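protien #1 (seq + structre)
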Amino acid sequence: FPELHAAVPGLPLASSRVLPGIVLRRDFAAYCPTDGELRALLVTEPLRPALTAPGVEFVVDSEGQYQASLRWIATRTEALMKHLQSNNVKLLLSSVKQEDVVIYYAKLYGVSVVECLSSEEMALVSEITGVSPYVPFGDNMDREITETAVVTFCQPLLLVSKRCVHVGFASVRAFQPHCLILCGPVDGVNEQHAAALQEAFTMLQQLFKTVDQ
């Protein structure tokens, strides 16, 4: 329930509504508008390529070596974004903050990015779509990316002064997520309404479990 409702203080209760899909409480780090169905990728680690393996020290002896390292990183990052584009990936949902070079090439190749998502939000997306987080595969850029979720829409959403991301997923189960936008004059009223609604949903869950048995 916490991931399927958003409390918006400062608006009358009558402004409350139910939206299809889910609302992520983050703004786009990169937004590239697109029409129709698209593919999304979940990531839990930085996509900027590392210069060395974990635990291995990398020593730069000159400015030339440093600049060469930056060029290598940029080239590898661009190649990755090209690969995502060729696999029709248009949205990255990341639990970590991505570096500027990743955001730059994401914008260049038309890939929207939402970063710093909570573990609960990532788990909800995985549950809806049946997709696990993507693991980069080093130098192998030819492998087809299969860990993608079908997104029916992806757009910015402004809740008073907070910028959010509104996403619709094609669910692999009967569960079709909707998000409750709960409005009220102050936070305290919203919290009371949210608690009452959660208790009501819990009661309905128990009732349907009893009927099923």
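ok now protien #2
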Amino acid sequence: TAITITEQPVSVSVPVGYSFTLRCRAQGRSSLQYQWFCQYQSDCRLIPGATNQDLPIIAEQTQLYTCRVNDLHRNAVFSDWVKVEVHQCVARGLPPRLWQGEPVIVLNPQEQRVEVGQPLQLQCAAMGVPAPSYQWYRNGNLLEQQKRKKLRITHTRVSDSGTYLCCASNSHGEHWSNAVDVHIGWCLFGKVQAPWAASSGLMLCKIALLVGNNRYQHHPNLMAPVRDVFELRHLLEHLGFQVVSLLD
């Protein structure tokens, strides 16, 4: 209680090479001293010379930062840990030249086709100062529990099908991702999309059934059905088929 932090640093999400400043302010009963620390992966270290209230940074890699504040009586407190997320690959023209820190989408979700019961993951990412918060929607309806960059559904149902999009927002405004369709359905045998599949919640997957018969009652044994099935199985799996192989 001898030291109170009055302004916490805030997390940011910026392109590589971007210059900005982390700020920390505190009040105490005597003069205060500041020291900044950073953490990359599991390595936490003091930043030499970072003893001011403000910490200038040129974004190079994603790291965590905190500031220690102490007084002359050996009282000390730490600020919140904040994340500086650095986007290494950003499309040309992003952020805009006169960027003020408003959210800018740098990664849009992609259309998905998922079998019932399998996991679904959609991803969105945005730059912003402060770092944006995220909210996902399906068919225009807010998904209360989906508030992270990655939307995850462990076991999908047909009812999870729909059009998804994500809103990234901070104190400067909001930006919406592209809308993408997600198809959840049962897997049918076949190669050609049936016209009724989309409306009935059914999907056609590439499935191959291989049968290697060698024990014929009225025919000589074949040369190598077991080897043929083995080699065909690996070839078809490489082409994206689900393979069921049977012998005799």
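Residues 189-193 have pLDDT under 50 and may be disordered.
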